Amino acid sequence: MMGDGAPSNTIDEALTAMGFGKFQLLVLTYAGLGWTAEAMEVMILSVVGPAVQSAWSLSPQQENSLTSVVFAGTLIGAYAWGIVSDKHGRRKGFLIPSLITATAGLLSAFSPSFIFLIFFRFMVGIGLGGGHVLASWFLEFVPAPNRGTWMVVFSTFWTLGTIMEASLAWLIMPRLGWRWLLALSSLPSILLLLFYSMTPESPRYLCSNGRSADAVIILEKIAKMNGTTLPPGIIISDIQTDPQRIDTEESSLLSPENEGGPTKAMNNDFGGISSFLMLLSAKLARPTLLLWIVFFGNAFSYYGLVLLTSEWNSGRSKCNSDSLQSEKTNDVSYRDVFVASFAELPGLLLSAAAVDKIGRKISMSAMLFVYCIFLLPLVFHLPEGLITVLLFGARTCIMGSFTIIYIYAPEIYPTSVRSTGVGIASAVSRIGGIVCPLVAVGLVHYCQQTEAVLLFVMVAFVSGICVILFPVETMGRELVDNESELNKN
C-alpha cells in the first residue's frame, strides 16, 4: 500500500507543480461560455421589457415583473444548484441549470402570451442560478499562486456577454424584434450542452468525497495535456483519514468501490439543511454573514447603476420640465447600452492588477469606497458630460468589486460546502437585484435623484466596511477541504 516516509502533496501542491496550461485554458473556455450565457440573459432584461410592453400593451407593473421573475428564479436556483454541486458533483451542478436555461430561453421566443413569457423567464432565472457553480468548478483547477488573476480573466467573459447582448440588441431589435433576440441569446447555453461530455469533474471534489482514484485520473490528464509530470507521492485531503497514492504504479490499485465516502453523512442532508447550518457554525458564521451583506451590496449597486445610467438623463429632464419628455428612438437606446458596457473593462483591468498583488480585501474595499466618491457629486446639478464620466467611473469600480467578491467567496469556504456557500451568497445578491429597480430607480422616476444617489452611496459604503471586517485574506492561500483548516495560513 503506502510506504512510510513517502512524499505527500495536496491538490493545490500538485496543481502548482503542473502549472496553468492547455488543460486549464479549455476549462476556462467552457466555464467562461457559461458566464457569457448568464450575462446575456441578465442584460437582455434592459431591452426586451419595453418592446414586449409595446407589443402587448402591458402595464408598467407587468413590464417590471419580467425583471423580477428572473431574479426570483435565480434566487431559488442559486441555493438549489449549490447544494446539488456539493452533494452530487460540480458537473451535475452546471449540467441541469444549463439544460433549463437553454430550453426555457429558447421557448421564451415562442411565448404566445404574457403569462407564458413570465413562466419561461422564471425558469430561465432558475437555470441562471447555477452560474456560480461554473466559477467554483474553474477555481478548483487553478494553481493557488495566480488564482486571483485567472479568476479575473474568467470574469472577463461576463463583460463579453454584456457587450455581445448589447450588440445583438442594437443589430436585431430594430430589424427582427424581441423574439429573435431571445432565441439568439439562448445559443451560448445550448453550446454548453453540446460540449458537456468533454468536461472533467473537479479532482478536489472527487478527493474530498473519497474518490481518490478518479481524482488521480483527472490529475494525470492535466499533467499530460500541460506537458508536465504529476509529482510522485500521496495525495492528501483534509477530510480523508487514509491518503491514497497518486503515483501511476499504485493508482491503478485504487478502486472507487473500495473507497469510503468521508462525506457520507452529507447524503442524509435533506434539503441542504446540514450544509446551511455549517455555514453558520462558529468558524463560518462571521464570514458568511459579512459575505451576504457584501454580495447584496454589490448586486444592488451594480444592477442599480446599470439601470440608473439609462434612467438618469431622462429622469432629470422630466423633473426639470413640466411637460413629458419624448422618448428616444430605440437605436439611440441600444447604442447607449452598448457604450456603457465598455465601462466594465477598466474594472476588470484594475482587478487583475490588484487582486494577486495587494490582496482581495484591500482591492475590494478600495473600489467600493472610490465608487462612493464617484457617485457623491451626482447630488448636485452637473453638466451631462460630467455625469457620464462619473457614472462610467462608478461602473468601473463596482465591476471590479463584484469581480473580486466572486473570487474571494469560493476561496473562503471549505470544499464540502463551497458551492452551497457561494450559492446562498449569490442568492442573497439576487435579492439586491430584485430590490434595486423597485427602490433606487423608482426614486429617480419620482424626481428624487438625490435620495437615490445617497442610497447607493450608503449601501456601497456599508459593504466596504464589511469587506474590511472579513476575518482572513485569501491571496496566495491554498483552498481548504475541511472546516478545521480555516484558521490556518
Automatic annotation (TrEMBL):
What keywords does the record list, in alphabetical order? Membrane, Transmembrane, Transmembrane helix, Transport
GO CC terms on record? membrane
Where is it mostly found?
A: membrane
> Quick check: keyword tRNA-binding in the entry?
no
A Pfam family this protein belongs to?
MFS_1
Compartments (UniProt record): Membrane
Mention one GO molecular function: transmembrane transporter activity
Listed transmembrane segments: 25-45, 65-82, 94-112, 118-139, 151-172, 178-196, 289-308, 362-380, 386-409, 421-446, 452-472
State the annotated membrane topology for this chain. Multi-pass membrane protein
Tree of life domain: Eukaryota
Ranges for domain Major facilitator superfamily (MFS) profile: 27-475
Protein name as catalogued: Major facilitator superfamily (MFS) profile domain-containing protein
> In which organism is this protein found?
Acacia crassicarpa
